[in-house]
């Protein structure tokens, strides 16, 4: 696991300047929350990191090969769908409801394409890891909600990445996750290397990053939780999505001292206000 983490971290370090130069084009430069024009879609750098780190996991047989390949598949599909939205998407259509509404009116947006890709990926992954129909439905919902949640959280530098490390880290102490805990080590290596870059506001990982992180976390939680745990997690995720429609996530975080500290930790300059 340590080797996979280190390899992914090294690959990310090598690829960051190349990806940054690739994205320093007009269609990839977006305003961040402070109005600064910086490259968006930097999360695509996690894809080579995950692939190289996963090769190490397969060679060392630290976890089940099928799970490694499924994680790579989910990350790849959602990262590529995300980068398409980062580069080609517009700001006229907002939210999942808006993109689905456009689809029903006969117009496919990049956000709608990303949603379709996410839904089909969730179905495919859940079919492959589920023993029963009920479990499959819950797994599918779990993956989709995790994917969208990380997208919703990616409104400030490092917020989605910190969420990943918290969600992954707490499971180290849960026996049911122990056998496949290392499956996320390649992604963790890439994120650990990249997060100072994100916190320094040199680039935004965009949907290319948050969607890959979300689908990986969703699949990971499908593998380590029992049926009644999945019901509880899905209920919490649904509640978070409902609340995010009515209230600002950033405002809620800023009103909580602990969450505000975690959210702002490592941030360069103007804070997270």
How would you describe this protein?
It contains 13 helices and two strands; from the N terminus they run αββαααααααααααα. The chain has helices spanning 2-22, 46-60, 65-88, 95-104, 110-129, 133-153, 159-169, 175-178, 185-199, 206-224, 227-246, 249-254, 257-264; strands at residues 29-31, 37-39. A two-stranded antiparallel sheet has the order 1-2. A hairpin with a 5-residue loop joins strand 1 and strand 2 (37-39). Helix 1 (2-22) packs across helix 9, helix 3 packs antiparallel against helix 10 and helix 5 packs parallel to helix 10 (206-224). The N and C termini lie far apart (37 Å). The mean pLDDT is 89.
Number of DSSP-assigned strands: 2
**Series of secondary-structure elements, N-terminal to C-terminal:** HEEHHHHHHHHHHHH
Determine the fraction of residues in helical runs and give it as a percent range. Answer: over 70%
Q: Tell me the β content.
A: under 5%
Number of helices: 13
Radius of gyration: 18 Å
Q: Terminal Cα separation, in Å?
A: 37 Å
Write down the overall mean pLDDT.
89
Lateral strand order in the biggest sheet: 1-2
Low-confidence sequence ranges: none
How does the helix and strand content classify structurally? mainly alpha
Major sheet details: 2 strands, antiparallel
**Coarse morphology:** globular
Oligomer: single chain
Domain count = 1
Summarize the structure.
71% of the residues lie in helices and 2% in strands. The chain has helices spanning 2-22, 46-60, 65-88, 95-104, 110-129, 133-153, 159-169, 175-178, 185-199, 206-224, 227-246, 249-254, 257-264, and strands at 29-31, 37-39.
């Amino acid at each position: 696991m340590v080797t996979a983490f280190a390899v992914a971290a090294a690959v990310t370090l090598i690829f960051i300047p190349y990806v940054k130069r690739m994205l320093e084009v007009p269609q990839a430069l977006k305003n961040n929350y402070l109005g600064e024009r910086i490259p968006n879609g930097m999360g695509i750098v996690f894809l080579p990191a995950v692939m190289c780190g996963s090769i190490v996991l397969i060679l060392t047989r630290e976890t089940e090969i099928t799970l490694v390949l499924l994680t790579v598949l989910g990350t790849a599909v959602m990262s590529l769908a995300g980068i398409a939205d980062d580069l080609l998407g517009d700001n006229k259509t907002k939210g999942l409801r808006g993109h689905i509404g456009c689809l029903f009116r006969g117009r496919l947006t990049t956000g709608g394409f990303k949603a379709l890709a996410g839904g089909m990926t969730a179905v495919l992954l859940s079919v492959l890891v589920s023993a029963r129909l009920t479990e499959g439905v819950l797994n599918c919902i779990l993956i989709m909600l995790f994917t969208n949640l990380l997208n919703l959280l990616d409104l400030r530098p490092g917020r989605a990445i910190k969420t990943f490390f918290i969600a992954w880290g707490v499971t180290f102490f849960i026996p049911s996750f122990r056998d496949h805990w290392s499956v996320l080590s390649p992604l963790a290596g890439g994120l650990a290397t990249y997060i100072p870059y994100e916190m320094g506001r040199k680039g935004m990982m965009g949907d290319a990053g948050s969607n890959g992180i979300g689908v990986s976390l969703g699949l990971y939680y499908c593998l380590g939780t029992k049926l009644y745990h999945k019901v509880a997690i899905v209920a919490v995720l649904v509640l978070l999505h409902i609340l995010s429609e009515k209230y600002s996530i950033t405002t809620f975080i800023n009103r909580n001292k602990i969450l505000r500290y975690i959210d702002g930790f490592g941030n360069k300059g103007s804070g997270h206000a």
